[in-house]
From TrEMBL:
Stated name of the protein: Pyrimidine/purine nucleoside phosphorylase
GO molecular function, one term: uridine phosphorylase activity
InterPro entries: Ppnp, RmlC-like_jellyroll, RmlC_Cupin_sf
HAMAP family: Nucleos_phosphorylase_PpnP
Function, as annotated: Catalyzes the phosphorolysis of diverse nucleosides, yielding D-ribose 1-phosphate and the respective free bases. Can use uridine, adenosine, guanosine, cytidine, thymidine, inosine and xanthosine as substrates. Also catalyzes the reverse reactions.
Alphabetically ordered keywords of this record: Glycosyltransferase, Transferase
A Gene Ontology term for the protein's cellular component: cytosol
SUPFAM superfamilies: RmlC-like cupins
Gene that specifies this protein: ppnP
Reactions it catalyzes: cytidine + phosphate = cytosine + alpha-D-ribose 1-phosphate; guanosine + phosphate = alpha-D-ribose 1-phosphate + guanine; a purine D-ribonucleoside + phosphate = a purine nucleobase + alpha-D-ribose 1-phosphate; adenosine + phosphate = alpha-D-ribose 1-phosphate + adenine
Key word Nucleus present: no
Length: 104
């Protein structure tokens, strides 16, 4: 999906890791939530409440879901994080991403 239509955007930014990871919340008409953001190079760890789809539009990173192996996305790709789980990121270049929060 390259375009989101008929959405509400929350003006206040989500800012993490001293501004190295930022996003904006987008609410769709059906009630689903996404965030659109940028990650600067660095190492980060996040945890989830809901299942997440991380859709990488551009950039290079490695990711590791708790208990898993490191995997690489260079350019674009998607990975999923289960609900109530943590994941680590090693961001090598600026990463443009869209995170979708999914019902189980």
């Amino acid at each position: 999906m390259t375009q989101l239509k008929n959405v509400t955007i929350i003006k206040k930014a989500n800012i993490y890791f001293d501004g190295k990871v930022t996003s904006r919340t987008v609410l769709l008409q059906d009630g689903t939530k996404k965030t659109l953001g940028i990650m600067m190079p660095g190492e980060y760890e996040f945890s989830t409440e809901l299942k997440e789809e991380m859709d990488i539009a551009a950039g290079k990173l490695e990711y590791k879901i708790a208990g898993g192996e490191w995997e690489t996305i260079d350019g674009s790709g998607v990975f999923y994080v289960p609900a109530n789980e943590s994941f680590q990121l090693k961001v090598h270049t600026v990463v443009d991403y869209c995170c979708s929060y999914l019902a189980e």
